[in-house]
Amino acid sequence: MVNAKEFFSGNYLKAELCKGGEVFEIMDEGNMEEIRTPEGKIKVVLNFDVKVIEGSENLTPGKIKTFTPNKSNGDIMVKAWKSNTSNWNGKRFEIDLAKTQVFGKIKDSIVVIPLDVVEVQKI
What is the signed CA dihedral for 42, 75, 109, 116, rounded to 10 degrees? Predict the structure, then answer.
């Protein structure tokens, strides 16, 4: 069986696919990409391929998704795993959902909860 909601959502990990509690493993050191915001501005984002370890009805274990952490999640990840993203490969995180403002609209957003904490550091 193919999960149509997961299939048609594309390659990106999105909050609307999640219930909270899903677990992911980072599969690479990340890559930067330029995107255009709804306002037409160019913004550079950092993408990671992540594998679904513990899924939900819309996320099948073993599937690979692209995760683009926002600044808040990036700060959490740096505190947990330090700033060199090449060391993040293989690290696992759980997600929770929270209401946040995204491009002027209130939406559910992903909140990263690191499971493999190296050593908490101040940034």
Answer: 130
- Do 21 and 56 meet the contact criterion of CB atoms below 8 Å apart? yes
At 68, which CATH number?
A: 2.40.50
Contact in structure between 68 and 46 (CB atoms under 8 Å): yes
In a domain, 122, yes or no: no
| pLDDT value of residue 81 | 95
Q: Give how far Cα 100 sits from Cα of 55, 63, 104, Å.
A: 23, 26, 9
Domain contains 120: no
Q: What is the pTM of this model?
A: 0.85
